[in-house]
Specification:
By secondary structure, the protein is an alpha/beta fold. The chain has a single domain, classed as 3-Layer(aba) Sandwich (Rossmann fold). It has helices spanning 20-32, 43-47, 55-66, 74-77, 96-103, 110-119, 139-146, 175-182, and strands at residues 8-13, 36-41, 88-94, 125-131, 151-153, 156-157, 168-170. Strands 1, 2, 3, 4, 5, 6 and 7 form a 7-stranded mixed sheet that branches. The longest helix is centred in the N-terminal third of the chain and has 13 residues, at 20-32.
């Protein structure tokens, strides 16, 4: 992995709860490479207990990985861009709901405000999409984002094509190299595998 010493990276978590473990493992790799990580949670990700774990435990887990408290409110996340507090933003996992809001410029929660805050300075935003309808209703939103400057995608693959034919999930193991290339303004290839 590339050296990320001193790179200030925001790590946004949205509600694809079944992928938290994979995303958090890659956050640990980014930190081990020297990145200074700021954990950021959408309201749903920070407040919803699921069969994949209690919300408070998951927040505490990422805070431990990052070595700092998570940002969980719109007022706390808004200054990240204006005050130039981060170099790059990762959204991992990025749900279909979040992708749709980003595609249409809707800013109504902590995750979307974090992205808007970074885009105002034209900083890179890396999306690790995980959704059961990526090749269905969400395809148009993903397509819009693929054609929008400053967004970079972690490579996607069908995770269960027979059981869930429209589902795509990011290959989270490729997140660190996606981040490294996004810092240079380059999209990792291939995007779909």
């Amino acid at each position: 992995m590339n050296d990320l010493t001193g790179e200030r990276i925001g790590f946004v978590v949205t509600g694809s709860f079944c992928t938290f473990s994979a995303a958090f493992a890659e956050a640990a790799k980014l930190r081990a490479a020297g990145a200074k990580l700021t954990p950021i949670f959408s309201e749903h990700a920070a407040g919803t207990d699921t069969r994949f774990g209690k919300a408070a435990d998951r927040v505490a887990e990422l805070e431990e990985i990052c070595g700092r408290k998570a940002i969980r409110t719109i007022p706390d996340v808004e200054p990240l861009g204006p005050k130039n507090m981060l170099d790059l933003l990762v959204v991992a996992p990025c749900t279909a709901n979040t992708a749709a809001k980003l595609a249409y410029g809707i800013t109504d929660n902590t995750a979307t405000m974090a992205v808007k805050s970074m885009l105002r300075r034209q900083k890179p935003v890396v999306l690790a999409v995980a959704t059961n309808d990526a090749l269905g209703a969400s395809a148009k939103n993903i397509g819009l984002l693929l054609n929008t400057r400053h967004y970079y995608f972690v490579p996607l693959r069908q995770d269960a094509p027979r059981e869930k034919p429209t589902s795509l999930v990011a290959d989270f193991s490729r997140l660190p190299e996606t981040v490294a290339l996004a810092r240079e303004g380059k999209q990792i290839q291939p995007i779909f595998g």
